[in-house]
Specification:
With 268 residues, the chain is α/β, with parallel strands linked by helices. It folds into 2 domains: 208 residues, Spore Coat Polysaccharide Biosynthesis Protein SpsA, Chain A (Alpha-Beta Complex); 46 residues, no CATH class. It has an 8-stranded mixed beta sheet with strand order 3-2-1-4-9-6-10-8, sandwiched between helices. Strand 12 and strand 13 form a beta hairpin. Helix 5 packs across helix 6.
């Protein structure tokens, strides 16, 4: 395996994965491997694309465990740089090289890159050669320009859509906490774990990605049980509540309640 591995976890996102793979094939480097982890996705396993597979956990999709499994496969193959890219993300041509360079330069930092959320694709799909014309990073996250780096980043702004770290940083962190199952919380937890392990958090402007459009709920009401369960796990581990915007929006809809001690639970 190459010294750099891109890890993507997938559940029934075949078309988005295919477009991501097209974007990676257009990278300015071919010195990387793509490790795809199928989560409860027999069709993807049958296609031969997946390098590893996990079943659905009793409580939902094992997102944290799947990322750990992808890292395990990559490290076993000799990867020194781990790039984690959400299946919905298209890679800028320089993303892989940019992450590999910054990780080699500063291996004690977990690096994130700006992500642009795309509008629905035109007929025929997104023009991969013209992605940079659509560059407009999410306003709620740091967005350094290409060539710039930001250090000492806020762990509450870390996300798992696009990030990278060295093999040594990954091992120091211990990976994602697999107590989190389903949607939400595991990436914020990982950022806290990284800091606790003595790692820094940073943003690198040259590692840009583009999130393919798909329908979403705001707040994600279909994931309310996951969010509440994972928020409680986070609170037990760190003493604060994550995802407060979602929890408060659920509360307004009568889906969750807070007790007199401020603990959240599903409405009965």
């Amino acid at each position: 395996m190459s010294a750099t591995a891109v890890v993507t976890v997938v559940h029934h996102r075949g078309e988005h994965l295919a477009r991501q793979r097209e974007s990676l094939a257009a990278s300015s480097t071919d010195a990387f491997e793509h490790v795809v982890v199928a989560m409860d996705d027999p069709a993807l396993v049958a296609s031969g694309v997946a390098g590893a597979a996990l079943p659905r956990a009793p409580l939902g999709l094992p997102l944290a465990a799947a990322r750990n499994r992808g890292a395990e496969v990559a490290l076993a193959g000799g990867a020194r740089t781990l790039v984690f890219l959400d299946v919905d993300c298209l890679a800028d041509a320089d993303l892989v090289d940019a992450y590999a360079d910054v990780v080699a330069d500063e291996p004690g930092t977990v690096w994130s890159g700006p992500v642009t959320y795309l509008d629905p694709p035109p007929p025929g799909g997104y023009d991969l050669a013209a992605l940079r014309e659509l560059d407009s990073p999410h306003p709620a996250r740091p967005a350094p320009d290409p060539g710039e780096r930001v250090h000492g980043a806020d762990p509450d702004l870390f996300w798992s859509l696009s990030f990278a770290c060295s093999d040594t940083a990954w091992r120091r962190s211990g990976g994602f906490c697999e107590a989190y199952v389903g949607y939400g919380g595991e990436d914020t937890d990982f950022a806290r774990v990284a800091l606790a392990a003595g790692l820094d958090l940073g943003w690198v402007g040259a590692a840009r990605a583009f999130h393919q459009w798909h329908p979403v709920s705001r707040p994600p009401v279909e994931h309310v049980a996951d969010v509440v369960r994972n928020a409680r796990i986070f609170h037990e581990r760190w003493g604060t509540w994550p995802m407060l915007g979602w929890l408060e929006a659920f509360e307004e809809r009568g889906l969750v309640v807070r007790d007199h001690e401020g603990r959240w639970s599903l409405s009965r």
